[in-house]
Amino acid sequence: MLPATYQEFKNKIARVVPEDRLVTNPLKILAYGTDASFYRLLPKIIVQAHNESEVVSVLQEAAALQLPVTFRAGGTSLAGQAITDSILVVCSHNWKQYQVLDQKGERVRFQPGIVGTKANIILKPYGRKIGPDPASIGSALIGGIAANNASGMCCGNRQDTYRTIADIRIVLQDGTILDTSDPYSRKAFAKNRPDLLQEIIDLKNTINSDEVLKERIIRKYKIKNTTGYSINALVDFEDPIDIIKHLMIGSEGTLAFISDITYQTVVDIKYKSCAMLIFNTIEDACRVVPLLKESFVAAVELLDRDSIRSVETHPMAPAYFKTLPESACVLLVECQTEKEADLAVNQQKVRDAIVEIPTSHPFEFVRSDKDIKQYAFNWEARKGLLPTVGGLRKTGTTCIIEDVAVPVENLAAACIGMKAIFKKYGYHDATLFGHAMAGNLHMVFSQDFSEASEVKRYADMMDELADLIADKFEGSLKAEHGTGRNMAPFVLQEWGEAAYNIMMRIKQIFDPNNLLNPGVIINHDPKIHLENLKPLPASNEIVDKCMECGFCESSCVAEGLTLSPRQRIVVGREITRLQETGEDPQRLEQFKKDAQYTVDETCATDGLCGLACPVGIDTGLYVKDLRKQLASDKEKKIADKFADHMGATTAGMRVALNIVGGVQSIIGDKIMGGIAGGLRKLSGDAIPQWNPYTPKGGQKIKQDIVNAGQERKVVYFASCINRGMGKDKGYDKKDLNLVQLTEKLLTKAGFTIIYPKNINSHCCGMPFSSKGLVEEGNKLSDNLEADLMTASENGKWPIVYDMSSCYYTSLHHFKSDILKVYDPIQFMLEFVMPQLQVKHKQAIATVFPVCSAKKIGMVDNLVKLSGMCAEEVKLIETNCCGFAGDRGFTFPELNAHGQRHLKEQIPSSCTEGYSTNRPCEIGMSEYSEINFKSIFYLIDEVTA
């Protein structure tokens, strides 16, 4: 039950925001209300706002009832600035609009829900990008990047949001809107809020009259600094509206809501190279940093020995990483130039600069365009350090990151001092890494908050750290991660009373009733950083290392429909906690009930989250494990019968699909859809969802060998899906079923085709294992492997699959390492296309890389294969299509959600699209309104 005041708020705001976007369900409150920090507060209500007018209404109704409001974008913030126990307004979905404002892409306006990498994809054709480049750019949203003034590897404090903002549109606490790009809005604001503008002028005058304070502000912002408000705006600008514009950057939602922001973009330097420089000591590494001038290096990243240890087992890591001494330190140095010839010049300047401080190992620069994998590893090793180091922590402990900056000349002393503090307080797993050229250091360590003594240890360490950085080195206690809750008690210590009073006046001017994200940045409780600590109980060893960073969310097809991978893990941990404590049986049972749909049934288990997670956590495997635990004996017995009679199962599928297809051809799509939808509704959704691209039945394979007598031979595993499913309404009448077409292509390429024994009864096992029926899936996989071994003459002949997902399943389940198993993309590229002649390329080919193709690194090969068949290749950017095997039939809302941005990506000239997975093609055809089919059809067409 909502408290009465919050119920009143909900009733009022429901006139503006639909009920389904006003979240009060306890499971979703927990899931949506969790961010990447080590704090937890549970909102009373979550409002999923979709536009500015809804935000205005929320602020006005909340103000009338004196209820605090906190804004959330991606929730990747680390300092507790995106959590609340009041009203949480989530502004991520439906905040994806953008506008490039000039032909050269020098200015671009973004709404707050755009992912940082998406912003750079938008700007790539112009050769530009946004200035900020945080390690979380693949998951952090523009709103959070601006609100926290996040910087990153190469941007330093020259290209962060504060210095690259062109304009901003904000909503103040009372609902007043200011758009600094609009002269009329500026004029109206000056007319309606002269009091606020005068307050800003008075603040500026206060600083100007205090030379000591003014000098301190200027000096402290020569290094990275996000502690407190951006009071440098009061020094850097004269116009009060320009001052307001810059005060919003780094304000963490405590002064206003950012509706959109216009960036002055920066050049995306074309030629890039990097090298890992290994030094014997951290002192040597820090001595080198001032010698590496910004004129010839773009970034210098410091990684201490413990940081390197966290990545030394990576396949791309040099072998000598494991033998480095404990005192070793690495500098990752990046050179960027517009002219290719200048790259080598700058690399030599690096060598010359450090000649008197030699490295312990020889180093070479690797280029982003030529040494792609090694270059990517070097930066992956640095960008993924926070979650990677966090993944090594003891289960049940929290991963904590602190972020400081000192003048570069104090970098070595600061490193030594911090390491001494870690040793003193027993933080033996603490690592140091960061942006050395900016004097910016991150330290990551694990912390157990389950005992009072451990909390005190953390508190004492933080006090001593603040003394070292703020007092001894006059540095920044927060350089780029925002003040939040965990550094709010130390703002006064770092800045001193005069500056802190300015900050309190800023808060009072914009938020006089302290309703916008209260407790963040300005907080008078000296112990607030020790309160509301997040529990992280062991839940399942597959996901126990998750630190809830949120890197996975932008890869999840269900995010925004039900839960993301991070949120599934959060829910699982809470269920475990409630089971262990027994504190609230009713809440536990409700969580279990709600989790069936939100955690289990709408998870595509595609595993793309594992690619995005620096620790490699595949939440799909976690959900499959949950399904295994929940599978009943009855379900297992039924599955076992199906597995033992796959031939009959596939035959039954063909009969059923032919009946449905025959009815469809007689009565048409509209009537068929109405009847099928009605039957599904009457059955309580037990009958699968029909869609217009549901195929007719396939054909049984009737011979074991095709095109006998050829020198080249191939074993063809035709998947049970493609044996059971034939063509749909989008295919031409002349088109063959995929199995027949594959035979045609392989024959044309000069292969004898061998089918494994009992081909019509085989299955890779995926339809079973994906539902948690592991034993049944393994049995099918083992049977298939045995017959493929025989058919291939113990690995003599290659084996081609016609679906990427089946190939991926076998790749990870087969026990033998002598079978030469090929994904359809790779086999066509390496063995078939060289034997065929492309006679008439298509103008453009639209292709979709399915999840399994992405997981095995086959996207580039798909583009290459498509490029052989078309002058231009359009790659669909959708993560997972959401069909997820059979979920497109049983939970069609997942497919609809996954394809919501599909149609806008299809070029107007395209009438067909291509992929390598039949179920995905069915769903994509429905939502794109063009026909998707196997890329084999494209190959056949251009080589006919």
Automatic annotation (TrEMBL):
Keyword annotations of the record: FAD, Flavoprotein, Oxidoreductase, Transit peptide
Domain 4Fe-4S ferredoxin-type: residue ranges: 535-566
An example molecular function term from Gene Ontology annotations: FAD binding
Domain FAD-binding PCMH-type: 39-268
Gene3D superfamilies: 3.30.465.10, 3.30.70.2190, 3.30.70.2740, Alpha-helical ferredoxin, Uridine Diphospho-n-acetylenolpyruvylglucosamine Reductase, domain 2, Vanillyl-alcohol Oxidase, Chain A, domain 4
Entry's EC annotation: 1.1.2.4
Cross-referenced SUPFAM superfamilies: alpha-helical ferredoxin (SSF46548), FAD-binding/transporter-associated domain-like (SSF56176), FAD-linked oxidases, C-terminal domain (SSF55103)
InterPro entries named among the record's database cross-references: 4Fe4S_Fe-S-bd, Cys_rich_dom, FAD-bd_oxidored_4_C, FAD-bd_PCMH, FAD-bd_PCMH-like_sf, FAD-bd_PCMH_sub1, FAD-bd_PCMH_sub2, FAD-linked_Oxase-like_C
Family statement: Belongs to the FAD-binding oxidoreductase/transferase type 4 family.
Stated name of the protein: D-lactate dehydrogenase (cytochrome)
Organism this protein belongs to: Rhizosphaericola mali
